[in-house]
Amino acid sequence: MASLFTDSCKLQEFSVRRFGPNDASPDEGVVEDLPLIDEKAVEQLTEGLISYYLPDLQQSKSALQELTQNQVVLLETLEQEISKFKECNWILDINALFSEAKHYHNKLVNIRNEMMMLHEKTSKLKKRALKLQQKRQKEELEREQQREKELEREKQLTAKPARRT
Predict the structure, then answer these.
(1) 31-78: per-residue pLDDT in tens?
(2) C-beta contacts of 76-80 below 8 A and 24+ residues apart
(3) How far is residue 76's CA from residue 88's CA, in Å, rounded to a whole number?
(4) C-alpha span between 49 and 7 (Å, rounded)
């Protein structure tokens, strides 16, 4: 690590000596400077940079993987809770349907009872009407018989001319 630091310091000294504040462009002569850069220094700088940041990056990667796993678990839990709420809504809907069915069942029972009561009343009225009709017929028959008796009696009471013999 110390050699990395000294190599980077040398590189900075070189760039400061080569490009001063009064120079026209800091990019001037970059192409000519490339062959002066040591390949070994670049490798060491790269390895140093990688070795410096790699543990943190690996930690971040494992933390992100753990976070992703936790999010997956959380999403599954949320989906389960949502399904429970949907089931609760379905249960409420089912309960509403059952209460509505009970209400209509009660209405049907009331209608049935009313129909049975009306049937009984109509049966009684029919029996009464039949009895009244039979009574009227009987009374009319009796009247008719009475008239016939009266006509027969009148016939018998009327004077009959005697027959001449």
Answers:
(1) 555 556 788 989 999 999 999 999 999 999 999 999 999 999 999 999
(2) none
(3) 18
(4) 13
